[in-house]
Amino acid sequence: MRKNQAGKLLLERLIQKEKNTPLNGKVAIIIIFIVLLPLALISGVLFSVIQKNTIESEEYFRITSLTNVKDNVDSLLRDYEQSIDTIYNYPELLKMSSQEGVLSASMDEDNRIQMILARVRASRGYVGAFSLIFPDQSSLVSISGYGNFEEFIRENERQMVDFVEEMNTPKQSIVWEANPNIRKSQGKAAYFISGRKAIRNIYHQNDLIGLGVMHVSTLSFEDVTSLHQNNTQEMLAILDGSSQLVWYNQETELDLSLLDSKLLSGLQENEPMKLLEYEDHTGSYCYLYETSEYSDWVFVNIIPKDMIYTQVTVFKIYFGIVVFFLCLFALFCGIMINRQMVRPIQAMIVVMDHIDELDKIGQQLS
Questions:
Q1: What is the model's pLDDT at position 119?
Q2: CA separation for the pair 245, 259 (Å, rounded)
Q3: Taking CA 8 as the corner, what is the angle to CA 5 and CA 11, rounded to the nearest 5 degrees?
């Protein structure tokens, strides 16, 4: 009962307030609740949808570009793997393996194996060296002008334990990695990568011949057009399976320190091919990454957050201007309605009131 009485009392007050509200006030309320509020609500929803679509479009563009880079680099590495496989085009090596059993560098007295290695190395450009590591840990190396003989020998000796382990592994897949210990000079030519793959006598019980190791200068990446289409304000980097730096766009304005342990750990924790946010002392960034199933390399694109939201910011400004002018237009319409309709009606009401008073005076006089 009390609730019903309170409701009736509130309704009566609202009715009384509506009666006491002037006509121009009622028009203003109608414009606010029927025009401006729905306009603000629709504008907010529309802006949210367009902002989401804009960010998704930017994310899709970045993902497509990064996938294109990965595919092109994988294609380049496969070409070099095919160069390693050209060693099977020389039956004299396979014949030596069949006759001698386990080969060794000491058996190459007439340099027949050395000449084969030189031909394999020369089958593609930018190859610094091609080595054949034998099961007894001896090796033969063919060097080009892209590297230093002593550096390649030291690198082979440093990794000999891994080489022996890999050549005795049944799998035939190639291993690609960065070689930060090999340097020719400063600049782009300083970086080398290596691909190593077990070489077996496919015509004689698949016996192990050795491990083919091809060292390639990252100058070969100059031929990958998609690697050089990034803005200088962002960073594109390639890391091998051990998180060693393979390549990055040296024209970038961003610092390599962005590839710190915090970001690298985030690569393991977060989903690939998704735009993620990252902050450090230099600013706020967005990044995404993709891992190659072929090489196990990680391709990372780091972009300043402002670049991702540039289109959203521009749209926000234009959208705000449009909404502002729509509000001005609604206000202008309200003023015109007040002048053209409300004021004449109010004047008519006043005249009618005066007519009623004159009728009463006339009746009194008569």
A1: 93
A2: 9
A3: 150
